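Subject: design request, 215 residues
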């Protein structure tokens, strides 16, 4: 299962490329984007924002391709603020809802709504990655924001853990693309609702103090 997940994380970005390419010829393909809108919300009920850091094709596109060109700078606090994220969520969902309503009964028109929203947000994510880190978009992604709210309410226990062997070297803090401070959760669940469980902190920890089921 672990090997399959690693394979997915490495190559699933090809689905994003295929989506953008095939939709140019037939907009019905674009409706498949509904999966990437619903999945992070459903998975968050059981495992927090696991989708965002492991299964999202666009997220894996940022991790495998865009990261090579990213400036790796810290994301401004404003982009992570509740005010900005709520505004982005309301704006995007309003535009999306009106788009669907206006094209109801027209499958190609609905496909265009999905295609446009994925294309524009992906471009925004790429541009922001050149200014800040490669996961900048994930800090205020509307679906990620909803998943974070659910994660906070559900308080899932199937998330990363930080054992008491943590020495607070702060390497995990420097590596986290979302700006979380994992070592602050020493001896507890890494229960921050925005943790996308990408595993960057796991790979950099010199004491193997971060992971699943390590208590």
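Subject: RE: design request

Done. Sequence follows.
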């Amino acid at each position: 299962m672990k090997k399959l997940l690693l394979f997915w994380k490495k190559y699933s970005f090809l689905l994003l490329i295929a989506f953008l390419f095939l939709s140019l010829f037939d907009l019905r393909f674009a409706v498949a984007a509904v999966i990437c809108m619903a999945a992070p919300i459903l998975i968050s009920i059981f495992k927090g924002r696991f989708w965002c850091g492991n299964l999202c094709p666009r997220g894996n596109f940022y991790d495998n391709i865009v990261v090579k060109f990213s400036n790796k700078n810290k994301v401004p606090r404003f982009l992570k603020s509740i005010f900005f994220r709520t505004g982005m969520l309301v704006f995007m969902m309003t535009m999306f809802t009106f788009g669907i309503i206006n094209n109801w009964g027209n499958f190609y028109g609905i496909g265009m709504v999905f295609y446009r929203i994925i294309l524009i947000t992906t471009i925004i994510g790429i541009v922001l990655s050149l200014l800040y880190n490669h996961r900048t978009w994930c800090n205020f992604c509307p679906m990620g924001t909803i998943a974070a709210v659910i994660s906070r309410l559900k308080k899932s226990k199937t998330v990363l853990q930080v054992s008491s062997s943590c020495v607070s070297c702060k390497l995990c803090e420097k590596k986290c693309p979302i700006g979380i401070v994992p070592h602050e959760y020493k001896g507890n669940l890494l229960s921050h609702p925005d943790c996308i469980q990408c595993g960057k902190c796991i790979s950099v920890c010199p004491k193997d103090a971060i992971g699943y089921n390590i208590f």
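The first strand starts at residue 161 and ends at 162.
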